[in-house]
Specification:
Elements: H1 10-32, E1 39-41, E2 48-50, H2 51-67, H3 76-80
Antiparallel strand pairs: 1-2
Amino acid sequence: MVFVPVHPDEQQFVDTALELVMEAGRLVRDAFDQPVCVVKTKESATDLVTETDQAVEKLLIKGLSEAFPDHKFIGEESTAGGASYRYTDA
């Protein structure tokens, strides 16, 4: 697949995301082999979240925020936990 950037920094965005996703994948793989997994429910008994879900989200948001400090990021687990957020058109 050929990637043609439309934003001058788009390749950096993609490269950073790929690097972080590979790291997150290792985290998930390592957690999968662990005998104990803490599972919590969010809004309903069928809406589950694990410590690994939260760790992956934290890793991704931290990595993206460090790479792109002028950008803002939100995630499913942190907003579900009551974290505040604000949308902009910036």
